[in-house]
UniProtKB/TrEMBL annotation:
Family: Belongs to the bacterial solute-binding protein 1 family.
Protein name as it appears in the record: Extracellular solute-binding protein
Keywords carried by this UniProt record: Signal
Keyword Lipid biosynthesis: no
Source organism of the structure: Comamonas endophytica
Cleaved signal peptide residues: 1-21
InterPro entries per record: Ferric-bd, SBP
Pfam families: SBP_bac_1
Highest taxon listed in the record's lineage: Bacteria
Presence of keyword Hydrolase: no
Length: 339
């Protein structure tokens, strides 16, 4: 064999050996409270692009935090994805999430939707606003969350249970905005105006407005989007109103789904890269379309159903500040008899 042929063969063998020697990228284990069939396709896309395997475990947000705390240093989790700013704040304060320095995450996630201590970042927005019966309420009659405490709405208001974190975070926002005393007066007014029992989920609440059980209610917009995707005619009877859009009214309340790298992550670098990818402009479309949430990355476009609701002014209050007041909100809800 000529020398060059021998060299070529040796080189080919060397490349093959080198390729065989390349270790597979280290897997990332994700604990998530999001619905698996909505999140998994996005994570599968990450695996296709990077070769990084994602081990996904789903459960309720509170259960995942308790699991992380119980597992401690032996936990296989690298990333915690959960919903509600109170859950994110509590996970960080319990020492379950670590500080990560990421200029990319800070650039993709607005400052009021991430932890000032760099332990968690929002990945999607979940607006909580006012809905009304189109045949019984005129938009001109609506204005703010605070106005729903006025006696003119007595027997006409539907609300979700106080046991739900979304209710607790809304009241926590009112505390951050007004202080405990005024927030308590507003919440007491809501309770006095209830049309009936509180609801265990927003879907039932919106259906109750349509059925005439109440005229107005407060719900997350993505529940409305899910209904509209199946029943477009539902939007003729029940309509969305962006709360607190007037001057000095503070803007509409925005909750979050978000994520952080766990304190005992075995692959923190891989976890950081996954979060950066999830917050990127292109991936935000996959992350929010079909869930009817709003992208956290302001350069990404929302689902057409969400875009049809129009632009609105969100509350500028920091999510971490609201999350820190959730315990006080729970005590307030108990004092006013909000079940």
């Amino acid at each position: 064999m000529k020398f060059w042929k021998k060299a070529l063969c040796a080189s080919a063998v060397g490349v093959a050996t080198l390729a065989q020697a390349q270790p597979a990228p280290q897997a990332v284990t994700v604990y998530s409270s999001r619905i698996e069939n909505l999140l998994k396709p996005t994570l599968d896309q990450y695996t296709q692009q990077t070769g990084v395997k994602i081990n996904l475990l789903t459960d309720r947000g509170g259960s995942l935090s308790e699991r992380l705390a119980a597992e401690g240093k032996s936990s296989p989790a690298d990333v915690l994805i959960t919903v509600d700013m109170g859950n994110l704040h509590n996970a960080a304060e319990r020492g379950l999430l670590r500080r990560i320095d990421s200029p990319m995450l800070n650039a993709n996630v607005p400052a009021n939707f991430r932890d000032p201590g760099n332990r968690w970042w929002g990945l999607s927005q979940r607006e909580r606003t006012i809905f009304y019966a189109a045949d019984r309420v005129k938009p001109a009659q609506l204005s703010t969350y605070e106005d729903l405490a006025d006696p003119k709405w007595k027997g006409k208001l539907c609300l979700r249970t106080s046991k739900q974190t979304y209710t607790q975070s809304l009241v926590a926002m009112m505390i951050a905005k007004h202080g405990v005393q005024q927030a308590e007066a507003i919440t007491r007014g809501w309770v006095n105006n209830l049309a009936g029992d509180v609801f265990t989920n927003d879907n039932s609440l919106l259906k109750a407005i349509a059925a005439g059980q109440c005229d107005v209610g407060i719900a997350n917009t993505y529940y409305y989007g899910r209904i509209l995707s199946r029943e477009p005619e539902f939007g003729q009877g029940v309509k969305l109103f962006w709360a607190n859009q007037g001057a000095n009214q503070g803007g509409a309340h925005v909750n979050l789904s978000g994520a952080g790298v766990t304190t005992h992550a075995k692959n923190p670098e891989g976890a950081r890269k996954l979060l950066e990818w999830l917050s990127s402009e292109g991936v935000q479309t996959a992350y929010t379309h079909g869930t009817f949430e709003s992208p956290i990355n302001t350069r990404a476009k929302a689902d057409p159903i969400v875009q049809a609701w129009g632009k609105f002014t969100p509350s500028p209050l920091n999510a971490a500040d609201i999350g820190s007041r959730q315990a006080e909100a729970i005590r307030l809800l108990d004092r006013v008899g909000y079940r």
